[in-house]
Amino acid sequence: MKPVISIEEIEFRIIYLRHKGAYKDFRKQASKMFKRLYSFGMSHEIVVEGVSKVLTIYDDNPYITDQDNLRTSVAFTCSNNNPVNLEDEITEKMIHGKYAVVHLNLSPKEYKEAWENVYRDWITQEEYTLRDAPPFEMYLEEPSSKEQRNVDFYIPIQ
């Protein structure tokens, strides 16, 4: 079944915390990383519960980059433009540009196959031209380890 794909121009500020290493190691650390980033964002009043969105950003292609060098980030969209004194590995940046947004409902075990299908089938069939920016997932509801949940895959296109 082909998913719903929309084209969107986006621009938002994020705070993020990056992991370097294999995806399996990232998955073990992700919950702790999200909690740390959430606490930071709340204490600086730039993350607002129910308003800020949660993201996972994939900076590298796992078919090209050695797994020990894969960069994966957890992120929150910022609810305002207040200046922030960043600490340690917590960083901020703008995400902007044109994206193909793939709207899906997945269980945690379906993510890898869904990403492969997006690139192999849907994006190439639609003849989108990819641009050099990292793709990311935006979670539209509370994470769950077992249940299906709504998630959007953002694929940077020209």
Write the layout of secondary structure elements.
Layout: E1 4-20, H1 23-43, E2 54-58, E3 71-77, E4 91-106, H2 111-125, E5 136-139, E6 149-156
Structural summary, described in words:
The protein is globular, with a radius of gyration of 15 Å. It is built from two helices and six strands. A six-stranded antiparallel barrel has the order 1-3-2-5-6-4. The two termini are 25 Å apart. The protein has 158 residues and is of the alpha+beta class. The protein has a single domain, classed as Regulatory factor, effector binding domain (Multidrug-efflux Transporter 1 Regulator Bmrr, Chain A, Alpha-Beta Barrel). The relative contact order is 0.23.
Name of the top-level CATH class:
Alpha Beta
Principal-axes geometry comes out as globular
Structural class: alpha+beta
Radius of gyration: 15 Å
- Give the percentage of residues in beta strands: 35-45%
Strand order of the largest sheet: 1-3-2-5-6-4
Total number of β-strand segments?
6
What number of structural domains do the residues give?
A: 1
> What is CATH's topology name?
Multidrug-efflux Transporter 1 Regulator Bmrr, Chain A
Unreliable residue stretches:
none
Number of helices: 2
- CATH architecture assignment: Alpha-Beta Barrel
